[in-house]
Amino acid sequence: MSKYTFASLIICGLYSSMVFATESIGEKFKQLDRNEDGFLSRSESARDPALWSRFKSYDSDKDNKLSFAEFNEYASK
Ligand SMILES: [Ca+2]
Ligand SMILES: [Ca+2]
Description:
By secondary structure, this protein is mainly alpha-helical. The chain has helices at about 5-20, 25-30, 40-45, 50-55, 55-60, 70-75; strands at about 40, 65. The mean pLDDT is about 85.
């Protein structure tokens, strides 16, 4: 592999992680909220393992679903 190929791979990698980081929290929420009720259920959160494993700690009103405000607590960290 030439140096140039290697460098362009790194640039591509950096670029795609930047795109991922700038994806808005609202977009992420919409992707996870499959039934579009405005809340993330436990099963909807399973698509994001990090969120799923801490679901209870972010569910501050203990209604077993995450509102956008609760999700925002997670996503903005
Ligand atoms: Ca939902
Ligand atoms: Ca909640």
